[in-house]
Design a protein that fits this description.
This protein is of the alpha+beta class. A hairpin with a 2-residue loop joins strand 1 and strand 2.
């Protein structure tokens, strides 16, 4: 979906007597309008999902569906990967850090009541990930640690 000629994406999948079709197209504000329709072997509708999301969140949505599949006991070979397990507790686990997330971490880390546990909760990361990122950003201690 890189230029005007491919602004509409249509894919379909038929499996186990079900046919699902996904249609997505860009809208003016950089979002994707997405519609998913599912039908059974007889052509009766079994599912309709429709909404929009930021283009940058497509991978996040795919991960969310994979987590849902794992929680419903449908993960491949009945196993949930370490990444999936971590993302059940920390939605951003094993994802790269964006400049915006770094900026937010720095802002939150400057607050007088900042703690690794609080930062982890706010940024949906593990405490270890927060400690690691603070080191990389050369933030050696949080304000409340300096007062102790």
């Amino acid at each position: 979906m890189g230029d005007a000629s491919d602004d509409v994406l249509r894919v379909e999948l038929t499996q186990h007597g079900r046919r699902y079709e996904l249609t997505a197209h860009r809208v003016a504000d950089g979002r994707l309008e997405v519609e998913v329709r599912g039908g059974d072997a007889g052509g009766d509708s079994v599912a309709v999902l429709s909404d929009s999301l930021p283009v940058t969140d497509v991978g996040l949505l795919a991960d969310l569906f994979e987590l849902m599949r794992a929680r419903c006991g449908q993960a491949d070979e009945g196993r949930v990967s370490v990444v999936e397990q971590q993302r059940l507790a920390h939605a951003e686990a094993y994802r790269g850090w964006t400049a915006e997330q770094d900026e937010r971490l720095q802002e939150l880390a400057c607050r007088p009541d900042a703690s690794v546990k609080g930062l982890a909760a706010a940024l949906h990361r593990s405490e270890g990930a927060i400690r690691s990122r603070l080191r990389r950003l050369r933030i050696d201690e949080l304000p409340h640690q300096a007062q102790v």
